[in-house]
Amino acid sequence: MTTDRLDQPRDLRRARRPHYDPEAFGRLSERIARFLGTARFLVYMTVFVAVWISWNATAPADLQFDPYPFIFLTLMLSLQASYAAPLILLAQNRQDDRDRVQYEHDRRAAERNRADLEYLTREIAGLRLALSEVTTRDYLRSELQRLGEEVREGR
């Protein structure tokens, strides 16, 4: 007789449901959604439907597998659409998550750039103030010329 003790952790039980990797499933759904959104897929589906309809409309009666109302074709297309829609939504959600992460990264980079720009602006303003107090070559040259003229005039 086994009793459950409250001071001991439970033994791990095996999950009865199958395990799947959500990341691998997400990547697969993105690949499928990416393919569903191409012209190649539209051409393939158009050719498939055209062959299906032409075969079932023109083949001998004993070789037709889906007569005129094409109910089996409708069922297959509905099944394909019922799987395609959630796969596309899953791919869009994953893209939204990636976009959100990229947006946050861009926002942080923009904040760092703004802080760097403000720092450089303050430094340039400080340098301008410091330079306004420093004698420039042109000012010194003009003062020396003026003093030279005063000395020549004074002789």
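(the above was protein one; protein two follows)
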Amino acid sequence: MLKAFVAVVALTLSLNLATAQSIEDATNAYNRGVELAASDLPKAVEALLQAASIAEKAGPEAQEILTLSRQQVPVLQYNHATALYKEKKIDEAITNFELAHNYAVEFGDNGIQAKADDLLPKLYRVKGNNEYKAGKYIEALESFEKALGYDPDFAGAHLSKGLVYNKQNKNDEMKAAMDAAIEAGLKTNDSKTVEQARKFMSDNLIVDANAAFKKNDFNATVEMLNESVKYSESNPEAFYLFAVAYNKLSRWDDAIATAEKGMALEENTPAKQARFHFEIGMAQAGKGSTGDACASFKKAAVGPLAESANYQIKTVLKCS
């Protein structure tokens, strides 16, 4: 019986000594991490993770070291990622912000998690834009998707996806991405991105409308212009092309109405207004309103259209 008691005492002393040794090791690792934080953040994080691991195994007596180590890890990892970002090492910064995110989740640091989650989508967009500029469209799309994985309402990432799809001549995907950019931008009050997406789609559709016009497909021209002005009604080019196409289709009233809208948007100088007056004159002549047409062609007889307008005045309509 005595021998058994002695054995129990010896075992208890051994366990106590082992625990004390573990706490000392954890403390030393923690102190080393704190010291390294001033000069080498990655090694500081490594030391603090080691301290936390040792402290966790040591039990309740090492709880303070465990708590302190876990508190420091996400912060130092985030600071290291920030330093890399300032050095414009985007790929490395992303990797380390993701580590900061993971440590923050594991150790319950909501503040660092929120900061990392705010920066990561922006960094993935920067990475994707760089890949886009380098012609690496597949890689760019992957980066934008990762950005949207962190923030589905990131209007800028949707916009950038649309630009990639445009380069790939994927019109349906481009439209979907630009529409998503507009929807997300309206939701998050990102008016700049909303305007960029709307302008891009409007301008792109005007280009398509011009191509259809050159093929004498005037109905398709009008159809594309109708889509264009759904995105933006601020481009006088759209309304000028509307007027020309409507005149080709003998839709005189529509030609006059769209030309007048274009004039209101265009710079108010005789030279800039002349082309709209010319199309209004053509529509009025088509309707048989010779007097009104003569007045419009006289206003159109400025700059490049002067010869055509004077021909209508003198030869076609024989204006007085």
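Reviewer note on protein two: Confidence is low (pLDDT under 50) at residues 1-18.
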